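Journal club prep, shared notes

We agreed each person brings one worked example of a sequence with its structure written out as tokens. Mine is Angiomotin-like protein 1. I'm keeping it raw so we can talk through how to read the token line rather than staring at a rendered picture. Sequence first:
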Amino acid sequence: MSSQASSLTGPLHSVSLLPLSMATGSQSLPATPPNQQPLPPDAFAIVQRAQQMVEMLSEDNEALQKELEGYYEKADKLQKFEIEIQRISEAYEDLVKTTTKRESLDKAMRNKLEGEIRRLHDFNRDLRGMCFLRKSV
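Then the structure, token by token:
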């Protein structure tokens, strides 16, 4: 590892970690049992750095979980809006069908009434003609 300080940056934080050689300068090693090999001098710094990384990753994980939960809520709202839009669209289509049917029935009824009016005009004209002929006779 180099003698410069290494850093880990992410979208949520920026933390500098000390190089292993600097982190172990002030620590003393505990006595090792006789049947085990002594730990290297930077082992404690490695553990400390690993703990820092685990802590940072845990914080990142919590933040990402909250962000994901927010996205789930937004997706749920969008889905509800889509369902509502679909319901409104179907209601509009039904309204258009009903209106078209009503207009068609109105037109048929108007044509029927106009035919009836023409027939009654013709009948009335014929009756007037008959009345005129009877008066003149």
